């Protein structure tokens, strides 16, 4: 049990280090820092970094905000799963959140959209029914055949 707890702490520490702020740093800056530390850990010299690659990495920020938010599963003490089940029993994972309010907001937003789509589908079905009825009303021969079949079935 203690081994597992220690492993969990190590993972949280690792993912927590990913969340620290690095304003103004680019991926090239981070790579240079890693490259400077590498000889200390391996005891070997490392080749020079490619300037063209560094130029490409210099255009990207070190921390991308959208990716930063996705790390909550590695650092949070408690997470809340927002799930929805539609009328057909299909389950939808709406997201994993750090607090109940965000999970509830996700569900409310999904449910609102679901109810809107449900009403739209109901309206479409009514329109389709009206069109089908109009086609049936227009086809006099089909009405006569149906009437005849019903009369024969009653006998």
Number of strands: 2
H/E element order: HHHHHEEHH
**Helical coverage, percent range:** 55-70%
Shape: elongated
**Mean pLDDT metric:** 85
Which spans have pLDDT < 50 for at least 5 consecutive residues?
A: none
Strand order of the largest sheet: 1-2
Structural class: mainly alpha
Structure annotation, total helices: 7
Q: Which strand-content bin applies to the residues?
A: 5-15%
Structural Rg: 31 Å
Distance between the termini: 79 Å
Main sheet? 2 strands, antiparallel
Task: Give a structural overview.
By secondary structure, the protein is mainly α. The chain is 66% helix and 8% strand. It has a two-stranded antiparallel ribbon. Strand 1 (80-85) and strand 2 (91-97) form a beta hairpin. Helix 2 packs across helix 3. The radius of gyration is 31 Å and the shape is elongated. The termini are far apart. The model has no long low-confidence stretch (mean pLDDT 85).
């Amino acid at each position: 049990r203690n081994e597992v707890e220690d492993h969990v702490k190590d993972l949280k520490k690792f993912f927590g280090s990913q969340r620290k702020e690095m304003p103004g740093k680019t991926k090239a800056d981070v790579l240079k820092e890693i490259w400077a530390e590498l000889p200390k850990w391996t005891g070997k010299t490392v080749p020079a970094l490619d300037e063209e690659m560094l130029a490409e990495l210099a255009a990207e920020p070190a921390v991308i905000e959208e990716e930063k938010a996705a790390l909550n599963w590695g650092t949070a003490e408690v997470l809340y799963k927002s799930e929805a089940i539609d009328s057909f029993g299909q389950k939808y994972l709406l997201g994993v959140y750090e607090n109940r309010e965000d999970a509830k907001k996700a569900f409310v937003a999904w449910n609102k959209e679901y109810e809107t789509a449900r009403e739209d589908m109901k309206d479409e079905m009514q329109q389709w029914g009206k069109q089908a009825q109009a086609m049936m009303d227009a086809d006099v021969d089909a009405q006569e055949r149906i009437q005849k079949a019903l009369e024969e079935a009653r006998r």
